Amino acid sequence: MREAQKLADGSLNLGRPPADLARVLALEALAAPGTTALRALWRITQGEGGNETRGAAARVAWGLRSLFNTPEATALVRASGQREPYWRSVLRYCAAGGIQATLDEYAHVLRESEGLFDESPDEIALGVSQAMREALGIRASNLAVDELYVKETDGEVGLRSHRMRGHFALRFGDERSDDGTEVTRTSQIRGAFNSPFRPFVLATTSVGQEGLDFHTYCHAVVHWNLPSNPVDLEQREGRVHRYKGHAVRKNLAREYGLSEVRNLRGDPWEQLFAAGRRDRSAENSDLIPFWIFQCEGGAKIERHVPALPLSRDQARLVALRRSLAAYRMVFGQARQEDLLSYLLSRLSDEEASRVAQELRINLEPP
Q1: Does residue 36 sit in the same domain as residue 56?
Q2: pTM above threshold 0.70
Q3: pLDDT tens per residue, range 162-213
Q4: What is the pLDDT, as a whole number, of residue 359?
Q5: C-alpha angle with apex 202: 106 to 228, nearest 5 degrees?
Q6: Which residue of 80, 99, 265, 351 is surrounded by the most CB atoms within 10 Å?
Q7: How far apart are CA 37 and CA 100, in angstroms?
Q8: Cα–chain-centroid distance for residue 266?
């Protein structure tokens, strides 16, 4: 602070400017965490934020600083092999990874998920920055891993326990930090998973099957085991098929790129969704482009079933795929499973698909 005061009143002698000063300043302007966070917050508030918005951006930058100072992040950033101060490696990493685009998208997502519509610009910035800080501050969990081994002495099977830290994958539940002093709640884990930062893999039981949203940065579901009916399968995959989901945004970005981002002071994602609505207006559906937006070679909801050959799940997957089309015919009916079994016993796959189209009632708004 004293050095800054000296610089302000002109009493600090900075000496000769470094040869790479212009390059470093340009890199700071493009990719410094504080600068990019401030631009992202200003864009979702149409540039109307004041000093509170600057403070909010500083708090996001401090959260990013903490993230980049973790051992695993340091190892990843230093993997380039260049011998330079770490802060310069972080700047280059942020520029190469497009941190501005990342924070622009994340700020748009958070404003809607946090319900920040009618508040003042500074209140919007504060709410979004607080959610970002919480996601960035997720701690590594302490995991216990059991290993089976055969004892050399008597050939019996033994059990070894190992401890390991989980950085990039977490289970959906209350997690105790690696030092055992702090508990991370499920709401914090969900918020961190619904961010562009870690964790990138979330493991859950049927607790996460209904009523929870995991769609903001995920569009793939790995079924460790399969449910017994198509209703539960739809519920599971519906967690990542939601309003303005990850696959939808990836397809919008693929379709338009920067061609529709004309006002750099405004929210770029509002402009992309407006372009999608304009160009797909002929399809006459409020579901497009907010729930559905497809393009050639684009992203889609992915279903992964790592079933072993000849396993029970392999046979169940065939039956579930066949019943999904007919399931939509019996949706809302009493005793759905009985009606579904009856139809599937009398219709081939092609007939079930055709009848489903004929009997479908369009409930889209006019």
Answers
A1: yes
A2: yes
A3: 888 888 888 887 766 555 566 668 888 899 999 999 999 999 888 777 788 9
A4: 64
A5: 125
A6: 99
A7: 8
A8: 22
